[in-house]
Write a structure and sequence with these properties.
This protein has 3 domains: 61 residues, no CATH class; 122 residues, EIF_2_alpha (Alpha-Beta Plaits), CATH 3.30.70.1130; 284 residues, Rossmann fold (3-Layer(aba) Sandwich). Helices cover 43% and strands 15% of the residues. The protein has 20 helices and 12 strands. The strands form 2 sheets. An 8-stranded mixed beta sheet has the order 5-12-11-6-10-7-9-8, with helices on both faces. A 4-stranded antiparallel beta sheet has the order 2-3-1-4. β11, α17 and β12 form a beta-alpha-beta unit. The radius of gyration is 43 Å and the shape is rod-shaped. The C terminus is likely disordered.
Amino acid sequence: MDLREYLRVLRRNWILVTALALAGLLIGGAASILSRPLYTAETQLFVAIQSSGSVQELQQGNNFSQARVQSYVKTVTTPVVLQPAIDSLGLGTTSEELAKRVSATTDLNTVIIKLSVTDTSPVQAAATAQAVAESLIYAVDTLEKPKTSGTSPVSLSVISPAKAPTSPTSPNTRLNLLLGLVFGIGIGVGTAFLRSTLDTRVRGEADLRRITDAPILGGIAFDEDATRKPLLTQTAHQSPRAESFRQIRTNLQFTNISSKSKTVLVTSSLPGEGKSTTATNLAIALAQAGQSVCLVDADLRRPMVNDYLGLDRNAGLTTALLGASNIGDLLQPWGEDSLYVLASGQIPPNPSELLGSEQMHLLLEHLESTFDSVIIDAPPLLPVTDAAVLSQHVGGVVLVVGSHKLRFQDLEKSLNALAMVNSNLVGIVLNQLPTKGADAYAYSYYSNDEISPNYASKTKHGKSDEDEFLTSASPLPPTDMSTASDEIARPRRASVYPGNHFPGHE
């Protein structure tokens, strides 16, 4: 992972990291509030050698006292020093317990001992520190006194009496808050990277690039209104959703320019990724660009196109494949543009056999000879083999990938399934992408309010400037429709074939 990947992981999980950082702050603040304040009183003692000899003797005495100071520091926390202090103050504690609250230190090459005592009461802390200091003086005098007679060569004096502290030394609220914040951020970042490692869902373009180098035709942002208004015609003409499908339309046409076939199959890996809405809206976008388009609902297991467009599916693709009716009588015109829909028809018991039959191949050939573009809505790749079988009869396959729905392993299986039958994967459409964040795909460089009146105005044919450009410069050359142009223009079910029977059943 490079730096951009790390930043992307943090952007994806910024809410988690922020929440844990705030939780760390709360824990640090709570620890400061709930902790009982402790006060520390300090006192200092000076260690001296009782000698009035020569300078050399004084130097030797100074070295002697420095060497002994470390021993006195260790003696402070022993019962010899602490028990007399406990007895003098009448403390209800033991020397072992008091030793945990008493500490003594000394700096190198000095003869000064710093003694500190911590207690919940500032007055008690000062009194205890003073008592321990006096007990240390007596203990050292006793320990250093010669066994025969005479006085101790070492004397300790208090040079800084203990005073009751005015503010507690613990808890340190600032330190606790800082530690809580650092700890929370650390846990948040660690959890974010662990979550990113364990999460195998395809979230955006970066994740997709880890699996395949196939062209990305475009991305469709998640729209809450898409459930109620799934069609392109139900949204504003310059809405981000409409622009996304126009971008996919343009990229698809230029990506598929080398293919002689004008039939494109739209599928996905699993149900619920939005393949049917993508196929339907792509067909509408192509029709809005001035092309004659045939939308075929080849999902013979869970057909959805008829529900989106409000059409009858009792007679359709399966009817034509069985030779029960002429294909021209089954096409249903939709909208004001040259869009015709071939519904699924009755759901058969053998969808894979029908879609892979010679009749299906002949049907697609005749649709290609009549329409500028043929869009096929096929079933998902992984649950059934229908799409893989049908992909051998089309010029290209568009794979719809649902963001946050599809996992890496499922995408790999889908790509392998297409590769095994030598399908031509012309591109991938990322669907349900977030509008903000690390995986956002759309570029909202202008909104409806920012569009100039000249750009927003339609042409006399009711199409935008982009639609007019694609109509005049479409990379897919229109076919000769002289045999059916009059019938297609009629506002009824058109018979686009000159004969009365479907080829193959004559």
